[in-house]
Amino acid sequence: MKKWTTPLMLALPLALTGCTAAPSIPVAFGSPTYVHRLTYDTLYSAKPFTEATLYYYDNGTYKIISPGEEHYGVYVVKGDFDAPRYAITYISLPSTDWYGNVALHELLFDAGSGKFGQQALLPSDQYIPPQDGQFVLERNSIDDPRPLRWPAN
């Protein structure tokens, strides 16, 4: 399996260093595993996007795209993607999608019903109402997710 050694540079700004460029660290994607295609029934008012697609990699990295989002993060699965029920906790890397900060999402998936529930938490919004919707799980064959964008209408 091909490993990408520098597909994404995570900028770690240090305001007091006087540096002109923010220090960064390389974050490598693992091998592709799964894709979740989400369709939301209950939306978060600050992110009213009905659809989103998550691309997962075996080292705990992911990329998400939607009509209004595109960012990277890390995840941990409680259970397994092929279990009847499983949960995934996500922490996004700092991005403009989340006002230059991180976001925490916890999703519970029920394969039998094809439904998911979601709870999100932002440093700037600690009281996001629960969200939910339907999902489809597919195999991921995308080695390098960097070029992926939501299709323009």
UniProtKB/TrEMBL annotation:
The signal peptide stretch is 1-21
Q: Which UniProt key words apply to this protein?
A: Signal
Origin superkingdom: Bacteria
Signal listed as a keyword: yes
Q: What is this protein called?
A: Lipoprotein
